[in-house]
Design brief:
This protein has 244 residues and is of the alpha/beta class. The protein is built from seven helices and ten strands. The chain has a single domain, classed as P-loop containing nucleotide triphosphate hydrolases (Rossmann fold, 3-Layer(aba) Sandwich), CATH 3.40.50. The strands form two sheets. Strands 6-7-8-3-9-10 form a six-stranded mixed β-sheet, with helices on both faces. A hairpin with a 6-residue loop joins strand 1 and strand 2. It comes from Cyanobacterium stanieri LEGE 03274.
């Protein structure tokens, strides 16, 4: 990939003066306005903000689901702000794992086959596909549910399958958009324990949430309002404690 910036070797994400503008003239909406943000490899961040604050647009930019109108986005040293749709699709498949509020599992496939699916697009050999899928499902505690379909799993178990699917290609970043929004309190705790463990193992995690108690379990809260970052809160003593 072109436009590699060697000065960003220790930085996974760097946004420089990012704007996202929809429409024009009287219908112009500025969703992001001059956002600057740096995230190092191994960080565990949350993005918060009210509806319309820009947090969802920010997630789409970070996940290469959308391009900024103006500004530079360096991902692992590469400027990805103006790449083609095909190039962005490759990055999403190989470098970014996604977890959403709705699990987006294919109902006709088993947990194992749902997790295998992104590896097919990544060109992973069939032999390695199953090995890596079993490993990912074991990591989220579903080694005994490999052949269950989504309708045979609880909501929490389905979200665990979604997490396994997100990490199976060993992405640079795990992006989680309201991952606990459809879960009860106990299941939320279980899912957040998985995120904490993945981060402890070195995975960079960025989580969008409206739940303060969830955001408090991350190491940095990035607060958005009117398309801008208005506050960042770095913390060091908030690791979730696994239950006995």
């Amino acid at each position: 990939m072109e436009n590699k910036d060697s000065s960003l070797d220790n930085i996974l994400i760097k946004l420089e003066n990012i704007y996202k503008i929809y429409g024009s003239g009287n219908t112009e909406v500025v969703a992001l306005s001059g956002v600057n943000l740096t995230i190092e490899s191994g960080e565990y961040c949350s993005i918060m903000g009210t509806s319309g604050s820009g947090k969802s647009t920010m997630m789409n930019i970070l996940g290469c689901l959308d391009r900024p109108t103006k500004g530079e986005y360096y991902l692992n040293g590469d400027n990805v702000a103006s790449l083609s749709s095909r190039q962005l699709a490759i990055i999403r498949n190989q470098s970014i794992g996604f977890v959403f509020q709705q699990f987006h599992l294919l109902p006709q496939l088993s947990a194992l086959d749902n997790v295998i699916l992104p590896m097919k697009y990544a060109g992973v050999s069939p032999e390695e596909q199953k090995t890596r899928a079993v490993e990912a499902l074991s990591k989220v505690g579903l080694e005994n549910r490999l052949y269950n379909r989504p309708n045979q799993l609880s909501g929490g178990q389905q979200q665990r399958v979604a997490i396994a699917r997100a990490i199976v290609n060993k992405p640079l970043i795990l992006l989680a958009d309201e991952p606990t929004g459809a879960l009860d309190t106990e299941t939320t705790q279980e899912v957040m324990e998985i995120f904490a463990q993945l981060n402890k193992e070195g995975m960079t995690i960025i989580l969008v949430t409206h739940e303060h108690e969830v955001a408090e379990l991350t190491h940095r809260i990035i607060q958005f309002s009117d398309g801008k970052i208005i506050h960042q809160n770095h913390k060091t003593s908030n690791l979730i404690q696994p239950r006995a």
